[in-house]
Amino acid sequence: MSDHDYDAVNYWKSNLRLIFGSLIVWALVSYGFAILLRPMLAGIPIGGTDLGFWFAQQGSILTFIALIFHYAWRMNKLDEKFGVKEE
Amino acid sequence: MDQFYINLLFVGGSFALYIGIAIWAKAGSTSDFYVAGGGVHPITNGAAIGADWMSAASFISMAGLIAAGGYANSTFLMGWTGGYVLLAMLLAPYLRKFGKFTVPEFIGDRYYSQNARLVAVICLIVASVTYVIGQMAGAGVAFSRFLEVDSTTGLMIAAVVIFLYAVMGGMKGITYTQVAQYIVLIVAYTIPAVFISIQLTGNPIPGLGLFSTHTESGMPLLQKLNEVITDLGFNEYTADVDNKLNMVLFTLTLMIGTAGLPHVIIRFFTVPKVSDARWSGGWALVFIALLYLTAPAVASMARLNLMTTIYPDGTAAAPIEYDNRPQWVREWEITGLIQYEDKNNDGRIQLYNDTESFQEEADARGWNGNELVVNRDILVLANPEIANLPGWVIGLIAAGGLAAALSTAAGLLLAISSAISHDLIKGRINPSITDKGELRAARISMAVAIVVATYLGANPPGFAAQVVALAFGIAAASLFPALMMGIFSKRVNNKGAIAGMLSGLVFTLSYIFVYKGWLFIPGTNNLADIPANWVLGISPLSIGAIGALVNFTVAFSVSNATEEPPIEIQELVESVRYPRGSGKASDH
Questions:
Q1: Domain tally for chain A?
Q2: Is there a contact between A84 and B580 if contact means CB atoms under 8 Å apart?
Q3: Cα dihedral angle (B288, B293, B295, B297), rounded to 10 degrees?
Q4: Which pTM does this prediction carry?
């Protein structure tokens, strides 16, 4: 791939975009909802406590799983689309 | 049947299984020994990563930490799982494509520098040795409690079992024993949690029970818990924290540190393809989440159970009489992990938060100080006894705790021994060594590492208690940034990478040492380790994230001021970015 064909460059850009989007969600659920924004979500009750507490103890973990599977699925599609899939 | 024999049956049975796997999965080449031949299925690898990752700390200590800290200690739940997102997107697929055996080898090749490789080896060894001591000590404690041997003997038995499958089978043996250990540990963790969740909330899924109604009182479980503990002067379980900056940085340090720990990264080298490395990350987190979603439920339910055991007629009534204490309290008292002192000589057990704000109420009730000290680590181990579960569940917990400790120890020992045999012996001392010679060297390194870890487990040095500060601090501040820049930047060169790793390391360790003592020697700290002394309220445990920032900044600045990396290095970076053309992991 050292010859920098057009597809390779766009493949990498698509990968970076996907990572960037995923990491925004990653940060939003953990650092956002579970920590910094918790006081703002305090009005949303869930099982005897508030939404921020749920994100801190369970919600962020469930989101992380979804993020990784989504990333793996999208990347495997991109591998095919840009012709860099493993033989 | 006597409880001792039940425990022996469960622990002995699981050990026989591990040894059976060891005989079946013998390593025949360095590729078998370092990366299990590179043919592990992603779901199998996910389960192995789960066991590799979930240590004695996750299995035994984490629920106790959350029970004590409530919401504030959610940092461990998020920090020890969020790192897998970083691993799966920023490191694992590309390092798998690179296709070599060790983490320092990538750093050495990418930064075309034997010195960079050496820095990485040193970071790896310090982080992994600190980590492995806790596993060995944990195995010793589990043995001594459940099999009535002293903890040094327990440690020896654990060492012999690891020796059998790790020296013979290397990564191949470790992979398949880890899968078995995952099953043992997750079953052991889940069953008592399910029973307790049904007892308290009627919901058989502990993770859901946590947010359900407490059957007895009709209140939500967490509200009931808040009520009980605030009656006794403790903070609300769900209370928010004031120092959000520190909470964010601590979580971030745990996440980056998780992603940078070599014993986890090398597990991704064992799958056949780049796409498998991506899937592996997802499966790993699924398997980890099965325990991590249950742990907060165990934490809150065990804390409530403990309180209602001591105050059977409610917090307003008198606590239980010492002579009527349950059997499990008596048994754990023998180990010293539960301690009772009748300070007001009334023959009852007063358990409350002994602080100034509660003084008035304590005086009014004739209390003269908190009388019961419960070690946080016993929470999971004593859980079945607290909930009056049958004897076989206790046997299961014993086998599960040992599985968690052994599986992580084996993964760490492999990371250590492969750094010695592959990075130091083959990489530096004797590059012309044959594959057979290197395999022998790897086995000898593993044997030596086990002996050293066993010795340190029996005589833990002061730094052994600092796993979070030392292992996660180093992985976050030195290894993770170097690996990430190696993949995502073509511009960072050898000088930048070395300067970055060293400055991140020195910065992080200095900040830790200022508060915890230089090299953790007691009395050598410059400032007392209390929040009032921390710079901007940042605890020494949270500093790794700032160390990583220092690393990135220095590496980019130095690289931009010096020459570009050679063209073949830039091509190497290109090649790890595209999955096509990845073979099995190899040494050439």
A1: 1
A2: yes
A3: -170
A4: 0.94
Q: Provide the token pair at B12.
A: 């002995």
* Total Cβ atoms within 10 A of residue B559: 22
Distance CA B166, CA B170 (A): 5
- What is the residue whose two structure tokens read 């023959």? B347
Residue A87 domain flag = no
**What's the rounded Cα separation, in Å, for the pair B4 and B11?**
11
* Contact with chain B for residue A31, Cβ under 8 A: yes
Beta bridge partners, B321, equal B348
Question: Residue A33 falls within a domain, yes or no?
Answer: yes
Question: What pLDDT shows up at residue B584?
Answer: 56
Instruction: Domains for chain B: give ranges and CATH numbers.
Output: 3-301+389-577 (1.20.1730.10)
Instruction: Summarize pLDDT for B484-494 with one digit per residue, the tens.
Output: 999 999 999 99
B100/chain A closest Cα distance in angstroms: 17
* Residue of chain A minimizing CA distance to B251: A31
> How far, in Å, are B400, B490, B507, B525, B542 from residue B539 at the CA level?
33, 34, 14, 14, 5
C-beta separation of B193 from B294 below 8 A: yes
Report if residue A74 sits inside a domain. yes
What's the one-letter identity of residue B188? A
Asked if the structure places residue A86 within a domain, the reply is no
Q: What is the pLDDT of residues B288-347, one digit of tens each?
A: 999 999 999 999 999 999 999 999 999 999 999 999 999 889 988 887 889 999 999 999
Q: How many CB pairs under 8 A join A and B?
A: 145
